[in-house]
Design goal:
By secondary structure, the chain is of the alpha+beta class. It has three domains: 3-86; 98-270 and 462-469, no CATH class; 284-457, no CATH class. Helices cover 43% and strands 16% of the residues. The strands form three sheets. Strands 1-2-5-4-3 form a five-stranded mixed β-sheet. The chain has a five-stranded mixed β-sheet with strand order 6-7-8-15-9. The chain has a five-stranded antiparallel β-sheet with strand order 10-11-12-13-14.
Length: 470
């Protein structure tokens, strides 16, 4: 697992330590064991560069040792065990660039089409998969530098694809290019419905198609252009839900598999019922807006915990900078499932968040860092404005500042510190909270957070149907 994946799955106390370490040091290599079961009796091992081992030792004040010719640093964090170990594996875990992502998606497309046409019984194991020379040769024409890591992903993915589609008439997967359904549906939702990015409506990376892409394009175009003046995105979604259930057109969002097996989850296949909406209503909403760094956290984000009466939090909204390591960043609003949450989390589209506040009568919020103080001088000019804002919310949230005076003092300290952009981010977070907490009455406020969750997980009648393979 890379840094982001590890932070997402780490228990809270361990996550706090990892955030401190990863914020203090930029890792050359970071590859955590995806098989770790989050048990206190089992150590999480993270493969890193030898220079990273040295840095962790310095940051934590923990001595290095050598085991099996590798340098390691072992940490025990409130009985959780964590080891940073020198890795002899070449390269490090990092986010792929657009060209690499495209090769990975086209690699999945090729493997899916190959197994549905030639290997409907599947492969008994990874070695059998890698030994199919015809398949490997074809894959390498698309993804020449494919490594064992991604061969393992394709192997895990193919099992799910066979389970879902071997009994259907889908044998082709549309990706992009001239005449593709992907290109056409992107054009339709952007031009007809004003959706700036296709993925904000439907994050599918490839489309399983029965017959030809041309046939499904004609069907969708007839529905959209046949009633151009009255057609809505909800009507388009209704058509595509029918096509999905008929196994005529199935959008698939591809995520790198990190577990022992690939998983499949479906979104927006049925129109939302009142009962289902009620399942996502949370009558207890706890907001944690802290500003002081501690041993467990650097207080970079705001947490919004959504829970139903008497239970633990089901989702945690993290509101923080897109990149906490540098300046000039806007906020991101990302939901993360906890415990028995019903669906995986995701990021909420910024324009949708701003529009949601507008719809609830508290308009004017803009997620633009240019609108907020970036240094102590600019903060001084608007200090009273933010102090009043903090006093407005402090009794409605959990915070580590007792009053507006202490809030101003802490913000000033951050501005004159090593990371002044964190102060700007905290002012942006405060402004959002001030707007959100003005949504009233209480019923409308709880519905606001249900809508925020739906926007982040792409759930609801405004979003297209898709399956997530991860």
């Amino acid at each position: 697992m890379n840094q982001k994946e590890t932070l997402n799955m780490a228990p809270p106390f361990m996550k706090g330590w990892l955030e401190i370490i990863t914020n203090e040091h930029k890792f050359k290599k970071f590859d955590a064991d995806a098989r770790w079961n989050k048990s206190k009796s089992k150590m999480l091992v993270v493969g890193v560069d030898v220079s990273d081992v040295d840095a962790v030792s310095t940051i934590t004040g923990t001595a290095k040792k050598t085991m099996s010719n590798r340098k390691v640093v072992d940490l025990e964090l409130n009985t959780w065990k964590l080891r940073f170990r020198e890795s002899h594996k070449k390269g490090g875990s990092k986010a792929p660039d657009a060209k690499t992502t495209e090769k990975q998606e086209k690699g999945s497309k090729f493997v899916f089409e190959y197994v549905l046409s030639n290997k409907k019984s599947g492969y008994a194991n990874l070695q059998a998969f890698k030994s199919d020379q015809k398949m490997i040769d074809g894959l390498k024409k698309i993804y020449p530098d494919v490594d064992d890591d991604w061969l393992d992903v394709f192997y895990k993915q193919h099992k799910v694809i066979l389970d879902k589609f071997a009994g259907s008439q889908i044998t082709k997967f549309d990706h992009s290019g001239d005449g593709s359904f992907m290109n056409k549906i992107t054009e339709i939702v952007t031009k007809n419905f004003g959706i700036a990015k296709k993925d904000n409506w439907n994050p599918a990376d490839i489309w399983g198609v029965r017959g030809s892409s041309k046939d499904v394009i004609i069907k969708v175009e007839q529905a959209v252009y046949g009633s151009r003046d009255s057609q809505t995105i909800q009507q388009l979604n209704a058509l595509m839900r029918g096509m999905y259930k008929a196994k005529e057109l199935v959008g698939i969002s591809l995520k790198k598999t990190s577990g022992k097996e690939a998983k499949w989850e479906e979104y927006n296949i049925e129109a939302l019922t009142l009962s289902e909406v009620n399942d996502y209503k949370y009558n207890q909403i706890d907001i944690i807006y802290n500003l002081k760094a501690t041993a467990a956290t650097q207080a970079l984000d705001t947490a919004v915990q959504l829970r139903q009466s008497g239970g633990g939090a089901e989702y945690n909204f993290q509101i923080t900078s897109n990149d906490t390591s540098r300046d000039s960043q806007n906020l991101k609003f990302e939901s993360k499932p906890i415990g028995s949450a019903k669906a995986r989390g995701g990021k909420a589209q910024i324009k949708a968040v701003e529009a949601l506040l507008d719809d609830n009568g508290v308009g004017g919020y803009k997620n633009r860092h240019q609108n907020y103080p970036k240094n102590i001088e600019e903060f001084g000019q608007s200090k009273k404005h933010y102090e009043n804002m903090f006093n407005n919310i402090r009794t409605k949230v959990t915070t580590d500042c007792k009053d507006g005076d202490e809030f101003v003092e802490v913000i000033v300290k951050i501005f004159v510190g090593e990371k002044p952009w964190v102060a700007q981010s905290k002012l942006m977070q405060l402004t959002f909270l001030d707007h959100a907490l003005k949504v009233s009455p209480k019923k409308k406020y709880t519905e606001f957070w249900t809508d925020m969750l739906f926007i982040s997980i792409k759930k609801g009648d405004r979003f297209g149907p898709f399956g997530k393979l991860y």
